[in-house]
Amino acid sequence: LDQIRCLQPDEWPLLKSLRLRALDSDPQTYWETSEVARTHDDTYWIGFARRLSVADSSRMFILEHEKCVAGFVFGVKCDSAPYRVGGLWIDREQRGKGFGSALVSRVIAWAASETQDAVIQLWCPVDSTVSFYEKCGFRSLDRFRTNDHDGRRIVEMEWRCPPQAEDSKGR
To answer: Which tens digit of pLDDT belongs to each residue from 35-47?
Structure first.
């Protein structure tokens, strides 16, 4: 049975392992390189895991399939700024099974459960990734820039909570 759960504070070795695996597998997806990530000591990873598991903070959602981690995504919560989707990664062997959509949907559900007017933004490459996020309910903001690390063109996208329907008495 597939399960999506949040990273726990004591799971910093899992966070480190998954992050390095993702950076090695899909370096073009991240701002950080695996070389830089490997220089972080355990204190860094312990602090990172703790920050991802504090109430009213960002989250790392992990999708487990057949007792193995199939993918993860970060749901980022900033003070007054919109929520963000970051670092979506699906193991190459597990792609095409809907796990990416399931993880993005989990970020949406998390943000929407925290505020009725949630806004979630992300940057993604101008390629098939755009249509993936459009299928998840995001729309392009038509704000483009060049990725500093690899020169790819990226676009900012956004998802907004649907307006709450008013009841028949106009409340």
So the answer is: 999 999 999 999 9
Spatial separation of the C-alpha atoms in residues 111 and 140, rounded to whole Å: 19
Dist. CA 83–CA 77, nearest whole Å:
5
Q: What mean pLDDT do residues 80-100 have? A: 92
φ and ψ at residue 11, rounded to 5 degrees: -95, 30
Helical residues (DSSP H) of 28-152, grouped into ranges: 34-37, 42-51, 99-114, 128-135
Confidence of residue 1 (pLDDT cuts 50, 70, 90): low
- d(CA 34, CA 37) in angstroms, rounded, equals 5
Asked whether the predicted pLDDT for residue 104 surpasses 80, the reply is yes
